[in-house]
């Protein structure tokens, strides 16, 4: 996954924290009271967020000693990529992830190119 603006790798597939879409957790989601003319909306259980483990580039997490939540910015261009909360965040699918370091899919570009993190040594 790369920052869309800076095309800098911010996470690999191995860094993604998998979760199962929530069902019962949706009852905790705040909903506006329906009016007489409003129709009932059906829930969409698709994830629009990517949850990752805390990564080295997340300087906001390291700088804020005692800070429980904050925004995550690209190191190269300072674009906002996501949000973190040590107490947890509810995914758009309804599942709770704790602690949560989420990246918004709309602010990322999925890269199919394999970039080695450690260069092989020969000889």
Automatic annotation (TrEMBL):
Belongs to the protein-tyrosine phosphatase family. Non-receptor class dual specificity subfamily. GO terms for molecular function: protein tyrosine phosphatase activity; protein tyrosine/serine/threonine phosphatase activity. The keyword Hydrolase applies. Keywords: Hydrolase, Protein phosphatase. This is protein-tyrosine-phosphatase. Its EC number is 3.1.3.48.
């Amino acid at each position: 996954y790369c920052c869309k603006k800076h095309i800098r790798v911010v996470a690999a597939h191995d860094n993604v924290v998998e979760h199962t879409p929530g069902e019962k957790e949706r009852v905790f989601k705040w909903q506006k009271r329906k009016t007489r003319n409003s129709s009932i909306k059906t829930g969409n259980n698709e994830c629009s967020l990517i949850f990752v483990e805390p990564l080295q580039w997340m300087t906001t997490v390291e700088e804020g000693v005692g800070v429980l939540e904050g925004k995550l910015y690209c190191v190269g261009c300072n674009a906002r990529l996501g949000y973190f909360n040590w107490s947890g965040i509810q995914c758009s699918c309804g599942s709770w992830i704790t602690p949560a370091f989420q990246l918004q899919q709309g602010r990322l570009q999925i890269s199919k190119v394999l970039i080695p993190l450690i260069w092989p040594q020969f000889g």
